[in-house]
């Protein structure tokens, strides 16, 4: 069996200009889109709380939202995951603890009402209220006062006597949001009709850290691969491979932008894998170009590239095809982020093939032409240096 | 068939058998054992045949696949440092007053970690400045104007303090989790100020948060040795319940109960202690695994707590003039008075240092200690190395500091997966892997016929190698890891496609089967090598920057790529060589 019965001789390279134009427009549109709309950052990066609940009876997303709102959670987002008959929902909230601006102010007032309390500071991101009291306070009373103002309290910490000034330092730690979600959903029920399947809770600082590390990982790997390609091949191959990588990453990011699927750590993993896959594809064709350069010494570079691409076309379709084939299971059985991962990879595979032909190769031609033109200028200027196109 | 072929063939067979052998613990832990026994190494070791590899070489299931809690706690080093600055400021004031250098007052700026000293008489400031800067070397001068001097915490000293605060918090968390008896916990440092905790099988994040989030409670309690034979008599009078393995051992002249679990001792002694007494336990560290307790021993203590960690001002491990490790502690003025009273009344008795209801040590009081500073010597060296001996002193100092200086811990991240969701994800992940792999295998066999089948053999071996490799590194299989597994196998086929296409091409040029196979492999080698190296680069970067599930994905990818280099180049070539050289096949079925 053979996919391409006869040797193809498609003139890819002649269409490089419109292709390059189209790619540039698409890439720019995605970048502008990211700047304008941003990603739908998952809890990994944005911080917040996500809980997954599975009901033991059929229920609609609207009903779940209604119940949450009735339970006092107006800003919750409810999303159905998996098949409809699984009755499984993701509930997402911005905060990580029960402390928000409104409840924090109430808690502060309640503490000040205790008397002799100074310097009340509501540390919302950490879900902690710090304060200093003139004399020692029983922690039970502090806990009760704060709880009465509507904030679930996990713990009241005594930090001991303030040695620099006068007074005693305390911290009130608010309970987590997940608790509140489950309470809201189960309000009025004797026994909850749902199962708590998953709780993800990421503090805002951690989210920022994770995001920065993810972006750094992408940059590092691109630079490292660029160095390797420049080292193993001629220098002129490097920029092409890099641009192809950047192109593919932007296109896959476009998938997350357009579909509004959650952009999280797994998405970063998908982007990094696409980088690896894209450059893999580019290298196979580069290898062939290098080989064909030696084989067809007299031919123009563009033509050699065309031959190389056509030579490897069957292979390109096959390898992309088998990789895509292996993703099918993940696309069918993958839930949530794994489905997104497989989908992003699929996009990555398709654009990876395209970018090798229409981004990496033309850029190499362009760099080669520039080098040749420079050489020609030098030769005219009397600097006769008979350099053949280099074969690395 | 030359000898080189046999040698390679032998290697492949050995690798295959080795992989299967290495997966025995994984097979037993995931398939044979019940779910709740899955993480129990001892049971696993017992059930496996004796010729199996050690139980620790097995593939763990990630928390997303078996249910459990993953937490990242952030240590609030800022608050701890602020408290420290205030304490040091007070010490400076005391020092200046004690030395009679003049009257000063101190004011601290918690944000900038600055201390402003103001002298009652500006003329005395020169002497004060000189003396204070020479003694309190962890402070640096910021500026000086007349009778006021602004000092700031030295940054390198502050960093040491921050690191210490995280270490303390980690130690406290470890001991607390141990107290709860959670098996297979993993507590490790993450970055500069965070601690990562994995609790497989636990399902209540709020409970877990409480477990690790509260500040440590350090107490000093007197040991009741009025009846040294208390535990021995108790055991004689009431035999312990069968299976609790409670025995009496004598340590330093005092009989104590010893049992493999803390609960056994606590349950047994409940309702059997005299009024105003309480039984607490001490962990006897496992000589091999330092963070685990091999058994526990009992102490009978006074119920009332005369002194707590809040009165403690500092604790440091040192080496004494006798070249023995010791821990120097000092109390604040109120604590010093109480400590003096306690030691005066308790000469000859033992004083237990208790952290979160765990007895850390119970040194003997040799004499009345006044002045608020004391020395705890670390007993006899015994069979320990000096490093271990000193290490114990350092741990004790950490424990004391952890109780004394609460660096508050806040929750950075909690991810909890219910057990039923975990099971479902394993099932779906497994199905996805099998389906993806099956489709690729089928396709290769149909498309390349015999060569495709050879590639399929390599592919299956590749899968086996990945699993064995993960088991060898005791890696954790996560849901993204399964995705990585499937994807890696998809990419691994790529190499064989390259080779087979090359062979077809060479055959198309009219070469013989032998020449085509040899050239196909030779030509494709560097291409395959380059593409694998670049993929490895991104996988390694993913590994070093990623956390949790992403790291699992990267591990799978790395092992898979290395395995693919071996299987696609060596394994398929050996088989191909067998057909075209050994059996002299004239046609290559590609």
UniProtKB/TrEMBL annotation, chain A:
State the PANTHER family in the record: PROTEIN TRANSLOCASE SUBUNIT SECF, PROTEIN-EXPORT MEMBRANE PROTEIN SEC
Gene Ontology annotations of biological process type: intracellular protein transmembrane transport; protein targeting; protein transport by the Sec complex
Task: List, for all copies, the residue spans of the domain called Protein export membrane protein SecD/SecF C-terminal.
Answer: 189-369
The record, for Pfam families, names:
Sec_GG (PF07549), SecD_SecF_C (PF02355)
Q: Which gene encodes it?
A: secF
Please provide the record's keywords in A-Z order: Cell membrane, Membrane, Protein transport, Translocation, Transmembrane, Transmembrane helix, Transport
The record describes its quaternary structure and partners as: Forms a complex with SecD. Part of the essential Sec protein translocation apparatus which comprises SecA, SecYEG and auxiliary proteins SecDF. Other proteins may also be involved.
Report which residue ranges the record marks as coiled coil.
none
Among the GO molecular function terms of this UniProt record, one is: protein-transporting ATPase activity
Record-given protein name: Protein-export membrane protein SecF
GO CC, one annotated term? plasma membrane
Give the record's membrane topology: Multi-pass membrane protein
Family to which the UniProt record says this protein belongs: Belongs to the SecD/SecF family. SecF subfamily.
Superkingdom to which the source organism belongs: Bacteria
Role noted for this protein: Part of the Sec protein translocase complex. Interacts with the SecYEG preprotein conducting channel. SecDF uses the proton motive force (PMF) to complete protein translocation after the ATP-dependent function of SecA.
TM regions (residue ranges): 20-39, 214-233, 240-258, 317-335, 341-367
Which cell locations does it reside in?
A: Cell membrane
Automatic annotation (TrEMBL), chain B:
Domain SecDF P1 head subdomain, chain residue ranges per copy: 295-407
* Gene Ontology CC terms, in alphabetical order: plasma membrane
Residues spanning the membrane? 9-30, 429-448, 453-473, 479-499, 524-546, 552-576
Specify whether Protein transport is a keyword of the entry: yes
Q: Which Pfam families match?
A: Sec_GG, SecD_1st, SecD_SecF_C, SecDF_P1_head
Q: Does the keyword Transmembrane helix apply?
A: yes
Which residue positions does the secretion signal occupy?
none
Annotated GO biological process: intracellular protein transmembrane transport; protein targeting; protein transport by the Sec complex
Query: Recorded GO terms, molecular function?
Result: protein-transporting ATPase activity
Q: Which UniProt keywords apply?
A: Cell membrane, Membrane, Protein transport, Translocation, Transmembrane, Transmembrane helix, Transport
* Location(s) in or outside the cell: Cell membrane
Which family is this sequence assigned to?
Answer: Belongs to the SecD/SecF family. SecD subfamily.
Name-wise, this protein is: Protein translocase subunit SecD
User: Its gene?
Assistant: secD
